Amino acid sequence: MKVIIPPLKSQGIKTKLVPPILELVREAASTGRWIEPFMGTGVVGFNAGFPRALMSDANPHLVHFYAGLLNGDITPSSVRSFLEYEGALLAKSGYDHYLHVRERFNRDFAPLDFLFLNRSGFNGMIRFSRKGLWNIPFCKKPDRFQPGYITKIVNQVTRVREVMTGDWSFTNGSFTSTLLSAVAGDLVYCDPPYFGRYADYYNGWTEEDEARLFALLDRTPAKFILSTWSHNAYRHNPMIDAYWSRFRIHRIEHFYYSGGKMENRNAVVEALVVNF
Ligand SMILES: C[S@@+](CC[C@H](N)C(=O)[O-])C[C@H]1O[C@@H](n2cnc3c(N)ncnc32)[C@H](O)[C@@H]1O
Q1: Most CB within 10 Å of its CB: which of 148, 175, 197, 231?
Q2: How far apart (Å, rounded) are the C-alpha atoms in residues 53 and 25?
Q3: Which PROSITE patterns did the record assign (predicted)?
Q4: How do residues 168-224 score in pLDDT, each as one tens digit?
């Protein structure tokens, strides 16, 4: 299958998990809404094939970008013009222009500046400082926005807009109210920050959060799929035994390479927890 790749990137993007998640989506056979309280880049929801969807996140910048695309404030052609214009300035002034856009974004929080920073920042990462400001260094490639790269991003924008066919909405907020809106027939997909892992302004996650998520998912009338981590060579996720082992769990092993080196191959086992 060809996975739809979104225009926004992040270090926690679940592109590789889309195929096994979609197998569970088919099994759930839900006919209601797709509900995704931790949408991040949106890659899972954009591939889920639902005409009705509620996508939400605590990070307003992700939400404002996609809400703008849904309501027509952002279009493939406005993205192209913007990236061509700003990309030419980046090619001319390099890091100084990255700093200029970063300063402008940290003042005005415009969604297209967010896209620009996301696609010209280091490794496609998203991170905000304790003051809620963009905090990713430049990728050090002033000629980042070559015509082919801009076209690739514009095609991603076009494809993602095409899947928002029916009744889609994007909301900014914490997971509680999103989950409380789920009814029987809906399918909820949760991909919260992992307990005990890296945190930033929008990605803190405590055991109290995990307990609250469990309480809501345990009682939801909808079907749910939860992504979490199971274990690696050194550690098990204590939240599995504490909360999730009473549900059915699919474990999926995948590999990452620290520093991109073959000899630094590490296995991590992800868990997909379902209530059906
Ligand atoms: C692991 S990422 C989701 C990645 C997403 N599945 C993807 O593939 O791009 C977790 C997301 O949860 C959001 N988040 C963190 N705490 C939250 C909260 N309390 N309520 C709602 N969203 C939250 C973060 O902003 C982040 O986008």
Answers
A1: 175
A2: 14
A3: N6_MTASE (PS00092)
A4: 999 999 999 999 999 999 999 999 998 877 678 898 899 999 999 999 999 999 999
